[in-house]
Amino acid sequence: MNTHPLMRRQRGVTLIEAMVSLLVMAFGMVALIGLQGTMRNSADLARQRTEAVRLAQQEMETLRAYSLLQASGNAEDRRRAYTQIVSEAARANAGDTIANASFTLTRNVSATPDGLGVAVAVQVSWQDRVGQEQQIQLDSVITRSDPRLAGALSVPPDGTPLRRPADRHPTIPPEAKDLGDGRSLLKPPALASGVAWIFDNKSGLIIQLCSSLSAAATTETISAAELAASCTGSTNAMLLAGHVRFSTGETPDPELPLSPALPLNLGLVAVNAQTPVPSHQCFNNAPAAADPTRTQGVRYYCIVYPNISRTPPSWDGRLNILDLPLSGPNAYRVCRYSADYNADKSIGNTEHPLNYLKVEASLVQQNFLVVAGSRNCPAGHPVDPSQGHFFNSATVEHQPDPR
């Protein structure tokens, strides 16, 4: 018997369907193989990026872990120094030998604008499995701080830590006006005429000078238009500020000095013959003549330009009170409020020494007490609230020079 023609046609269609199914499945298998290859390459690249980030972080933390500021010069001394944080050319084979790529590490180091640290950029580059160049980069700033200060991290705070005044550097005078853009403005006392200074809120340094302002203008009344017209260029200067109080009676009182203010000026002098006087300018609100109504003393502000040939920039000098008679029948004696406030057995720059040495930041609360020339500088009292002593009032002789 012969097969029916319709059945023969159905068998042909079934064969075609099977072949089409095989073709679709073949395309799917090819796509799956390609997907697996892409996933493998992506996983491989992710592993390489993770290793590159680890190498960059390790390099950055190694630089941060310096234990000296200056290298000791001893070839056997393996301690790292801050001065050894310098740029480094490309370092090949920076990764582990078992890594699936060869990594190259490059380090670029440059000084920060304020001179108080270095900006570090660590770049790690490599070639992935398909031959494409890949790289990652970490950027950070490493400040120049004495490693010995790290010991203070283990000392619990005494009482509740105070936050920074107005969320800016504590050396910026409270009367300075916050400009709202990371800067603050201060116009020194009236005798400063048309001068004003702009501070960086983070560092406390004076970064811009303003001149030709109205003599009647104050910190609060200077307009934005006046600032734009009068504040030009940039600078890198430091503030030196404090008070001069007077206690010229029979018994000098360093805690409540209420004698009338006297006319005076202040200025920096050289520490020794080999040290030049730092470039500076001082302003104060002292009266033109003795004023019995002025018992709150004199406020002074000095702008000091550091020696930029030093790393970091700093200055040396001694701040003296000028125009006061220090000898004769109507002589005065100048004392300075100074003591070992932080109990480190030395008088640092912030503690008002006789001579400032290597000053690298702004200084405030550098206060003086003027007494009669026939009286000695009062010894004062340490802090003791139970006895009514709320600040350290110790003073030492400053002028005439005790040395």
From TrEMBL:
PROSITE patterns: PROKAR_NTER_METHYL. Keywords: Membrane, Transmembrane, Transmembrane helix. Residues 149-183, 382-403 are annotated as: Disordered. The keyword RNA-binding does not apply. The chain crosses the membrane at residues 12-35. It comes from the Bacteria. Residues 164-181 have a biased composition (Basic and acidic residues). This is Pilin/secretion family protein with methylation motif. It comes from Roseateles asaccharophilus. The lineage of its organism: Bacteria, Pseudomonadati, Pseudomonadota, Betaproteobacteria, Burkholderiales.
